Each structure stands twice: as structure tokens, then as C-alpha cells.
Automatic annotation (TrEMBL):
Keywords: Membrane, Transmembrane, Transmembrane helix
Protein name, as recorded: DoxX family protein
CC terms in the record's Gene Ontology section: membrane
Keyword Transmembrane: yes
Provenance organism: Pedobacter lusitanus
Transmembrane in keyword set: yes
Amino acid sequence: MKNEFSLPQLFLRLALGISYILPVLDRLGILGPAGTPNIAWGNWSNFVGYTNILLPFLNKSAAGFMGLIATLAEVVFAILLITGYKTRLAAQGSFLLTITFGLCMAIFTGIKAPFNYSVFTAGGASLLLACVPVYKWSIDHYLSKETL
């Protein structure tokens, strides 16, 4: 098998992984406080408030729990995608998470919102990454018994 997917899959893995970890750092306040340019939340409380907007049928504590689950999933997906370990599974999981997020945005904040933030594009990229046959420059490739 040729390595025609080597560089694109590496770029896609890194771009997706970084795009999952940066919002986590934002909601933890590591990238700066609320109100700082290019900071969406700046703290956990603001993030939970936004989560409650996307899940208005939940009370604030339940929204906080769902935000925590989503945050943990994003951290796991980011690490797996960046390192290239369990890449296909991470790409499938990140697709499901992203599409769920995008649908909640579309339903509860309007159809334009997920397109403004390229949520469906990221979901499509995750799905496309899940279809790549070989993840060269990855832990998966290193651990595989069959190098192509």
C-alpha cells in the first residue's frame, strides 16, 4: 500500500487533537480569563452556563455533569488523536461527540451557530479520519505487526 494518506492523516489527527484540547484549556481558565480576546469562556462556570443553554432540559448541576463528561471525552480524544493511539476509535468517538454538540447547537441556538464554528466540518473530518486505512507516524502504526 502506498503512503498517499500519510501526511494528510497526520495533519488531520493533529488539527483535530489540538482543536479538542484548546477549548478544554479555555474552560479551565488556562488560556486567560473571561473577556480576554479569543477566549470563549475563561472559566468553568461560564462553560457550564453555555452547556445549560445547549441542554436546557437539564438543571444546572446536570448540565455541569454533562459538561464534565464532554470535557473528559475531549481530553481523551485529544491525547489519542495527537499520539495516534487507538486512532480509529478516537475518530469515531470524536465524530459522535462533535455531531451531538452540533445538533444541540442547531436546535437550541439556531442552525447558523454550528456552521459559524465549523462544528459539522470537524465532525466530518473525524469521520473521514476514521476511514483512513493506515495511520503512519502514530503509535498505532508502531504497534502494528504489519507495516504497510
